[in-house]
Amino acid sequence: MKRHYLAALLCCCSALYSATSAYAATDLPELGTAALNTLSIEQENVLGDAYMRILRQQLPIITDPVMSEYLTDVGNRLVAHSDNVKTPFEFFLINNNEINAFAFFGGHVGVHTALFLFAGNEGELASVLAHEVAHVTQRHLARSIEAQQKNTPATVAGVLGSILLAMAAPEAGIAALQSTLALGQQAQINYTRMNEQEADRIGMKTLVAAGYDPYAFPSFFGTLAAQTRFAAKPPAILLTHPLPESRITDSRNRAARYPRRPVEDSLMFRLAKARVQVRYSNYSNEYAIDVFSRQLKEVDQRFKAASEYGLALTYFKMGQLDKAQTLIRQLIKLDPYNLFYLDTFADVMLETKQFDTAIKQLEQARKNRPDNAVIEINLANAHLKKGDWETARKLLERQRSLDPENSTVYSLLTTVYGRLKMSAKKHIAQAELLALRANYSNGIDELQRAYRQTDDNPLQLARIDARIKQMRVAQQQLNQLK
């Protein structure tokens, strides 16, 4: 069993971090998605869930509800127009200034924040996501395992750590793997080249079906190539997705087969980009103000709001609340249901102690979108700040039932339960937060504390006991990956 999981993880890493040799100039035939003997979809989902929990522990994954919702919306638009979708998808954002994106088992697609800074429009961002979605739907990782069934890993120790390192710093990760493993390198390189070409071809088909411009693919590749030409070190994405000239040419040729239909850029993309620039980049406050101020004069007036939003975020970050409030009030008046505006409006109102104003605006938006996580989490936080802990509890427990893996919800619940003196439930929420990061040992400790603090509630005692057993099994399965 250990060797089975190890093989899966090895191929996950080698597929994501392929060599930089040139691609063949011609398109490859359809490789298909025939049933594999190596891994079932269920097994892929188990591996994907375990690996995602490890990544939450090891990498700076962003839990920003607004950015998560935007990225998921773009990703799901592509998934809805993809073939061979056999698993749910999860799109997540990593705070990393290296341009990169990757996919692994169970429909997990990770995107570095730098991609938002680098992409010129939503189509270019979507082209990268479409490529990664194709890796998943074509089961490239599982097919890589099948292609290398005869290869025997040299060692077990260090493999998991090398994979995690490769996610965060590809060059270091590749070096660690090369020193740890004995693989048939040329065969693996050839196979992953084929995977990359297939992901490009199928990804472009998906991109067009979702309503994006097919030329977003070659446009992104061209910009990437231009950046690389003058870079002392290639971007991380080129270590995982090599970009020889033939790949750029192939993407242009494929795009030419579709009708040219330039698609208007998205204001939502511009807002997301502004949010990344202020909150998740190396921009100084002064530089950000200069950038957004210049954009107000130079950028298409349709996207003026994104520059004003960037300024509002920057002023809020600097503590200049009057300026931030003036801008965000203007924006939310124009579009009261915009999640970017709502989130920042709530932040400003809470910081200035205008709790009822924030609650009123969020309640109005909630009537329009009753299940939305961004709105309900902000609303719960507003009630929490106001001191209405019971209302906050109900909102957060509702969101927990809708999304049992939302770490922001569990984090807020621990605070709310603490305020309400609900010690057992506080420990349960802390346990689930730890489990999301694969910290099952400490999670079990929290559950045992909850068990000791639960009186005269046989149903809750039974639930805690069952969850302890589940976490112990999960811990044993995780140990098999090491």
From TrEMBL:
| Active-site residues, Swiss-Prot/TrEMBL | 132, 200
Molecular function GO terms recorded: metalloendopeptidase activity; zinc ion binding
Residues annotated to bind Zn(2+) = 131, 135, 196
The biological process GO terms on file are: proteolysis involved in protein catabolic process
CDD domains hit by this protein: M48C_bepA_like (cd07333)
Q: Which cofactor does it need?
A: Zn(2+)
Where would I find the Peptidase M48 domain in this sequence?
Answer: 69-253
Q: Which domain of life is it from?
A: Bacteria
GO cellular component assignments: membrane; periplasmic space
Pfam family, any one: TPR_8
Q: Where in the cell is it found?
A: Periplasm
Q: What does this protein do?
A: Functions as both a chaperone and a metalloprotease. Maintains the integrity of the outer membrane by promoting either the assembly or the elimination of outer membrane proteins, depending on their folding state.
Q: Which family does it belong to?
A: Belongs to the peptidase M48 family. BepA subfamily.
Q: What is this protein called?
A: Putative beta-barrel assembly-enhancing protease
